[in-house]
Amino acid sequence: MTDTPGRDPDVLTTAELATKLGLSPQTVRRMANAGQIPALKTGKDFRYSWEAVREVLRQPHQQGNAADDPDTPDQTEQSRKGAGYRAQRRARTGAHHPTDTSTS
Questions:
Q1: CB of 99 closer than 8 Å to CB of 23
Q2: Average pLDDT in the chain
Q3: What value does the mean pLDDT take over residues 77-82?
Q4: What is the pLDDT of residues 2-27, one digit of tens each?
Q5: Cβ atoms 47, 11 nearer than 8 A
Q6: Domain residue extents for the chain
Q7: What is the rounded CA–CA span in Å between residue 101 and residue 22?
Q8: 49 forms bridges with which residues in the sheet?
Q9: Distance CA 22, CA 103 (A)
Q10: Membrane-spanning residues where (predicted)?
Q11: Cα separations (Å) of 83 from 8, 37, 70?
Q12: Which residues have a Cβ under 8 Å from the Cβ of 16 and sit 6 or more positions away?
């Protein structure tokens, strides 16, 4: 990322945040739409504060009431949390690039 005059270096685009977290831009947008990470809607896309996102991802994972009820299967929510866990791990360790891109 280059320094653009007048641009706060803490504010990232979806692509920039995705790179830092080692996720796809689509996954980052889904996390923002689901309220899993703080984001500011700018037209059709989002802007993110790196510090705010890191703070949220460093928190222990909080699942909704459906996950607390073992009789309520919620496969959609279960499938969504995978990327969130990976992003949390990267935010905690300060990793900016995916470490497992060589495997398929």
A1: no
A2: 75
A3: 49
A4: 556 677 888 999 999 999 999 999 99
A5: yes
A6: 11-90
A7: 9
A8: 11
A9: 14
A10: none
A11: 27, 12, 22
A12: 1
The C-alpha atoms of residue 98 and residue 27 are separated, in whole angstroms, by: 14
Placement of tokens 């703070």 in the chain: 55
Top CATH class, 11-90:
mainly alpha
What is the Cα–Cα distance from 100 to 22, expressed in whole angstroms? 9
Check: pTM over 0.85? Answer yes or no.
no
The rounded distance, in Å, linking the Cα atoms of 89 and 29 is: 18
DSSP string, the chain: -PPPTT--TTEEEHHHHHHHHTS-HHHHHHHHHTTSS--EEETTEEEEEHHHHHHHHHSPP---HHHH-TT---HHHHHHHHHHHHHHHHHHHT--S-S-TT--
